[in-house]
Amino acid sequence: MNVYWGIEMEAVVRLSWDTGFKATKQFLKEINKWTVQYNVSPLSWNVAVKFLMARKFDVLCAIELFHSYRETRRREGIVKLKPHEEPLRSEILSGKFTILNVRDPTGASIALFTARLHHPHKSVQHVVPQGLFYSLDRAVDRKTEAEKVNYQQSSV
């Protein structure tokens, strides 16, 4: 057993894993009540973890984030993104959206919009928010994968 500063590291990893596991179960229980009520597909474990990670495993804040995210997508007509089809493909490849690999002090992603690359007369209005959502979704996926690797390495 590794001991650092008087703390048993296996116990810390186990405690944080238990907390995350319980938070994810609680989040899914609450969200999937909503999915049943509105006849939509239940959320997967991986998607639940993404919302919880964004709110440092605060279940109530993650639920609020999920509903805000869902409502924004509904309002903007962003239901199913097709990044390999035009015009979204060109929007993504335009370079106007950049998600930095660094985080702000609170751990949030930093997204840049390069206005000089935006040409309103050439863009379809609904495609711009689709490009942003696609970029943000990919950034969350990258962060989740990096944290999985870090967790697995710390558990060894």
From TrEMBL:
Membrane spanning residue stretches: none
Q: What name does UniProt use for this protein?
A: Tyrosine-protein phosphatase non-receptor type 9
